[in-house]
Amino acid sequence: MPTDQTCQVLTAGFSFHRKPYAMVQPEGVKNYLLRLQTDGRCRARIDGDMSLVDAGDLLLFDPDEPYELRIDNETNPMGERLVESGDYHIFFNGSWVDEWWKRHTRPTRIKVELTESLLVLFRQLVLEQRRISNPYPEISSYYMRILCLEVDRLLSEHPTITNTNYVAYEIKNYIEENASSLFKLDDVATHIGISVSRGVHLFKEAFGKSIMQYTLDVRLNMARERIIFSPMTLEQVSESSGFNNYTYFHRVFRSRFGMSPKEFRVIHREQM
């Protein structure tokens, strides 16, 4: 790689707020910014609107994009109103970064899983920046390049989430995370912070099926894998996959896969 392809980390830190906080820079932050929400909630200006930012939201800002961040009382998934927001934030620039940014159309927000492999990159960059004496500043540069390329991979593996469909993806994530337990539409709506009717409408508009239809899809796919690979009894598979009634599970499974759970297990285990 040419030596003039610079990638410089200016600031890398972790913040956790329990008191209100606001930052407004209408002319932009003058450098590139990656901000990963790890805990709690806040609000940020995204595509011109102040939007709720949850854990797992990765925000990307170019140097000239207006920036506004506000941390105040928000309702958490338990229904409590409190100030609580944790995030990693990295300001960086350089000719390599300029070229990287232009490779793709970059949304301001990407919903990501807070995996250890992603968090360790942010963590290492913060640790490198905190070193009192650092004879190897290029280490930060290489960590930053890896993080940028990881963002590219996340973009390729996840659909772009816009303000118009973001709530639908929040609902989708809630379903996927809670499908193994029993929940009602009211639970989903309360968690997201919207009415049931609006949640139902936005989800159907984004994915072409109802919330409960998608929940059934997730539960049946979960049960299918457990029938094949786990030592659970079929009754245990049913219960652990979010069905509280084996008769109902048996009926919807046969309707979806054309055979009973027992027949499905026999056939697929013979192929293993």
From TrEMBL:
Residues 169-267 form the HTH araC/xylS-type domain. Keywords: DNA-binding, Transcription, Transcription regulation. The keyword Cytoplasm does not apply. Pfam families: AraC_binding (PF02311), HTH_18 (PF12833). InterPro entries: AraC-bd, Homeodomain-like_sf, HTH-like, HTH_AraC, HTH_AraC-typ_CS, Tscrpt_reg_AraC-type_HTH. It comes from the Bacteria. SUPFAM superfamilies: Homeodomain-like (SSF46689), Regulatory protein AraC (SSF51215). This is AraC family transcriptional regulator of arabinose operon. It comes from Paenibacillus xylanexedens.
